[in-house]
Design brief:
Rossmann fold; five-stranded mixed beta barrel; 10 strands; 7 helices; alpha/beta
Length: 257
């Protein structure tokens, strides 16, 4: 009997983040489930399922549960964009998550602010081995490759782009104001959380993955600074750049598995 390995799930929030990967998918097969489209196939010789989390924590939790229950995935990797919150986290940089928290979860004074009730924890950690592979893949993707002559992702527009590793905060809110992002950062810092980037899905995915014991890691490219021009920066980045980043990083990541 031929046993095929369980697939790796590649999750994104937006179609623009997924397009480049979908274009490379070998033997694509479309499955409709839970009001969503899942794409089964192969990338770099590996069995994969591509899926959209959709936007926000609840939608992301539904997609993650479906990937685990219905598709039996053995690991989940998220690739998408995020707002840069930490000092020095610029548009065009890449953040590989070490851990995740929900910045809009507050059951105080019953529980410490940001703690997820009944889990006894605030941060959910990414799988260390997958995270290390993603970090290497992201560094490789950004770098120019002298041996092949292939240019990296860093263009003049994002010269000096770099890869960071650290905490990502998720919440059901597009953070798009300099004042708001400062307040958010300060409130998190008071509670001891130095956040690099803000987005809307990964902490939910991490929580579901913890529940099921499925390894999870995430990479986010910075599309905006979560400030007053976030909506403009976000839209143009998503249209022009996001899918190239996802493609280059995930291809390298799958090769290294
Ligand atoms: N314009 C989109 C909505 C995008 S919401 C649409 O019409 O479909 C923003 C998405 O990008 C979310 O998936 C979130 O994870 C990420 N993101 C990027 N910048 C963000 C920011 N500043 N705050 C919160 N999420 C951000």
């Amino acid at each position: 009997m031929l046993l095929t390995a369980p697939p790796t799930a590649i999750l994104s929030a937006l179609a623009q983040e997924q397009n480049g990967l979908l274009a490379l998918l070998q033997q694509p097969q479309q499955v409709r489930h839970a009001g969503r489209t899942f794409w089964q196939g192969h990338l770099q010789g590996q069995p994969v399922v591509l899926a959209l989390s959709r936007i926000g924590k609840v939608a992301a939790a539904t997609t993650t549960t479906a990937l685990i229950e219905r598709f039996g995935v053995q690991r989940i990797v998220f690739t998408g964009v995020a707002g840069g919150l930490g000092a020095g986290v610029k548009v065009g940089d890449v953040v590989v998550a070490t851990d995740f928290l929900q910045h809009d979860l507050d059951v105080s004074p019953l529980f410490p602010r940001y703690e997820v009730p009944l889990y006894g924890q605030t941060r959910f950690v990414g799988d260390a081995a997958l995270t290390a592979l993603l970090f290497t893949a992201a560094c490789g993707a950004l770098a120019h490759e002298p041996e092949t002559g292939r240019g990296g992702l860093v263009t003049q527009q994002f010269s000096g782009a770099c890869v960071h590793q650290g905490l990502i905060a998720s919440g059901d809110r597009f953070v798009s104001g300099a004042g708001e992002s400062r307040l958010l950062q300060a409130a998190l810092a008071v509670a001891g959380h130095e956040v690099l980037a803000v987005e809307m899905e990964c902490a939910a995915v991490a929580q579901v993955c913890l529940d099921y014991g499925v390894p999870f890691a995430a990479v986010r490219t910075i599309s905006d600074r979560a400030d007053d021009s976030a909506h403009v920066d976000f839209s143009s980045f998503v249209e022009q750049v996001a899918s190239r980043y996802a493609q280059a990083i995930i291809e390298r990541f799958l090769m290294s598995l």
